[in-house]
Structures are given as structure tokens and as C-alpha cells.
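Closing statement on the ribose-5-phosphate sub-project.
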Amino acid sequence: MTGITSSGEKRLVLVTGRSHPELAEAIASELGSELLPCETRTFANGEIYARFDESVRGSDVFVIQSHTAPINEWLMEQLIMVDALKRASAKRITVVAPFYPYARQDKKGRGREPISARLVADLFKAAGANRIMSVDLHAAQIQGFFDGPVDHLFAMPVLMEHFRAKLDPATLTVVSPDMGRVRVADIWSDKLGVPLAIIHKRRDPRVANQVEVREIVGEVEGRVCLLVDDLIDTGRTIAKAAEALKKNGATKVVVGATHAVFSDPAVELLSNEFIDSVVVTDTLPLPPEKRFDKLEILPIAPLIAQAIQAVFDDASVTAMFDGAA
Ligand code: R5P
């Protein structure tokens, strides 16, 4: 049967929604498998339908969906696919969400706010997911929102291999673009054996996507600065940080981020004169209009495929990261 790999009694099944089929196909190809065909469509009133073409009874199913815009549609589609799999007697269902939707709403910053990252975890659970797999969660504690195993993968090895080959540690400084990323940036600086600098960023909680740089902690003058972040959305955080770094004497600013959300006006802001290069992974689709000259895209499929294989084989996922993060 298409899309099914047998290993003794167990059957590995890969399925995908419609948001980023290239990534799902790349994962399947890494695993030497195929995607199980799924008929998905949207009715005139916006309701989504999903049906699998073959039996999934007793299977270990991985439901791959990349949460790009329109994010609510792709989230709903993934939930509906999980529901269909549950009702079709799949033995175990893993939600593969390389970019966890609503991850930034992980706490109440002000009274009467939602904790939407928790709501998403509850929705996955209610739909029938047994486990979740994601890459570089905005905050690691989101794992605790889901009552079941969460495989938290790190893109750091993929990005680091790239930068190790390109940047000279003698002149390099790792920079955290805000206080939230200090812990991760610290691991980067440790692993690369280079100094760390931190940017004190301010946002007005009442205005979405506004950013102001207050100060830079650490030496950046005469240094090549590697700004690391989990995600780039409108690009304001990175653009403001790069400008501040160059104005404080940085010779070059290179950016490494896992999730290229690239909402408007990211492409314009990231193409500015203060940024020398931007390196991201393809956890999210990057259509031609989101690409620009200084952008380099690294494939995330090998990492996800390796983790899926480990979960299927009941092997360690932690071992893949050698204690990173
Ligand atoms: C913030 O906590 C995140 O790590 C990102 O720095 C931020 O969400 C990116 O958003 P934008 O690109 O719109 O500034």
C-alpha cells in the first residue's frame, strides 16, 4: 500500500495537510517512504473536509502540517485530519508541527488575555493526538501544556554547522536580540567558544509588532555579530537590532533563525543595509515573494525525519542533540 512502511508488527504512516507539501515530501523522501494520500478540500462556506484513501488501522501515524498563514485554516485542517485518523483506528497519532502555532501567546502578560498556546495543545489532545513533535518552541515550557509526550527538536545543529563553516570565531560575537533568547544565545556562544552580547528590546504591549532597542550589553565594536532568534515575523526585532549593532561598530551582522514567518514588511526590512546575510530553515514555506538576495535556506527535513524514525523505533530523540539546550 502507498505511504506505509512495515516493520514487524508496526506500520509507519506519514500524512500531510495542504500548507507545505514540499516539506512533507522531503521528510518522506528522507525516510525512504511516501505520503499516504489524503483527500482534503474546503467547502464554499470555509469548512474543511479530510479523508484518507487507505486504511490506517493500527498504524503509527505522523500528521505533518506547517503553520503558515492562513494559520487558523491550517490548524483546523490538522485537527480534522487527526480526528479522522482517530476514528479510523490509528494506533498512535503524532502531530508534527515544525512551527508550533500561537507559541508566542504562552502566558498572560496583562489581565484578561488568553493563553492560546495552551488552547492549541488542548485542541490537539481533544482531536486525538497522542504526542506532538515541534522544532524550536518559542518557550520550552510549552511542552507542559500538552498532556502527553512532546518531542522538542532543535535546529541549532543544522544552523551551527552552516555558521561554523562560514564564520571565524576569532572575530565573532553571538548576539541575543532580546532577553527572551538569552539562554539559547548563551548555548550558541558556549558551543562556538565566542563572546555573547545581549540587546535590551522594548515592546509596547498595546501595539502589535512594535520594537524599540534600548541598549546593547557586551562588546560589539569591530566584531562580526551573529544574531540568533527562534523566529522572524515582521523582521522588526532583527532589523532594529542589526541597525543598533552596526551603529555601535559591528563590522558585519549575520542572522540565524529557525522559523521564517516573514509577514509584511519582513522582506523589505531584512534587505536593509545593516544586515549582511539571513540564514533560516524551511519549517515554513518560502514562496518567491518571501525570498531575497541575502537569504539562505537550510533544509529541516533530515532532522525531522530522523526524529520520526527514532519515535517509530522507540529510540532516543534526546540523543540526537548531544545535550544541546
Ligand atoms: C520574540 O520574543 C521572538 O523571539 C521574535 O524575536 C519576535 O517574535 C520576532 O517578531 P518580529 O520579527 O515581528 O519582530
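Helices lie at 21-30, 71-87, 116-127, 156-166, 182-192, 236-247, 266-270, 301-312. With this model delivered, the sub-project is considered complete and its resources will be redirected to Aim 3.
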